[in-house]
What we know:
This protein is an alpha/beta fold. Helices cover 37% and strands 16% of the residues.
Amino acid sequence: MSFKNLGLCDQLLRAIKEQGYDTPTPVQEQAIPVILKKRDILAGAQTGTGKTAGFTLPMLQLLHEHKEDKRARHQVRALILTPTRELASQVQESVTVYGKFLPFKSCVIFGGVKINPQITALRKGMDIVVATPGRLLDHISQKTIDLSKVDFLILDEADRMLDMGFINDIKKVLQILPKQKQTLLFSATYSKDIKKLSDSLLNSPVLVEVAKENQSAEQIKQIVHPVDKIRKRELLTKLINDGDWKQVLVFTRTKHGANRLSGQLDSDGISSVAIHGNKSQNARTKALADFKAGKIRVLVATDIAARGIDIDQLPHVVNYELPNVPEDYVHRIGRTGRAGNKGEAMSLVCIDENEFLASIEKLMQKDIHKFVIKGFAPDPSIKAEAISMGGGGRGRGRNSKPSNSSRRRR
Length: 410
């Protein structure tokens, strides 16, 4: 099937062609016709499957078909909520790219930057707004955004919004929105909490699933390298140098850990930069741009900061530290193996993290292959210790200490 068979207008087909695409991904092929029929949708799809275009394209098509409805000038007709700034920027980029030949105006609003430029943009009139929940509520409280004409509500990566504690913010937004609207809920993982949320938000939704529940993408090669905690940095440097890796995304559990590891890699002669919630938005944007452009080899990230990193041919993801929330493992490795490309996900696992690994394998219903690198076999005399999640921890693992971190609006 080609995009021409999906009922999209010439302007959208032209934009799609400019991006070099002609065949929809499975989630696009399933979701777009349903959305065009104005049905609510609950879509469970792994990251990297094209789900952003899966809702962006039909949303733009429906706005095009009814562009004169309900407005004398630009009014917000579509609201897209995302959990993080990076993902919001990515979605906005998709709206801009695919909507370049259509007359709709769009903007992105999120925290961490000044609010006044956003207010100025909103006053000019916008058809489509991409937002994080916290900053959107700021605009609602200041009466700088009018959501009374919204026809589409899209929740992207809804599982992460629940995980980050945004459910109350979402409920506040829902109280503002018109009752009659089309709601699209997209989620990388498909949990009981997501099903419960969909029951409260969606009207007789169509279910779209393009991968088994919480299964990692098949094109991602996964491997675990057992290693002592104190030798992880040494092993990571060896892997990067021996493999001549030019671009690798490395995950840590905490912000402090990301900063420390980035500095250590730099001292090893490997160009690196860290991104996390304490970095300014400008710093995070520059770091990601430099990484995509190949100016730095290693991007060290925490889970929240890495959401929205979308690089079609990112070859390597390394879990320097396993996440204490097993679903985060699925999100992490989903940064590679995107758009049909092959990818490799390595996890450097010390004895302290064995329970985290067991939880991940239980979630995915499979064992991950273990391979000990020569010269890095773990010392059998070392005993497991409790893992302190530090200030960057989200949630608690069974062998982690409680974190004092608070959830913040993104």
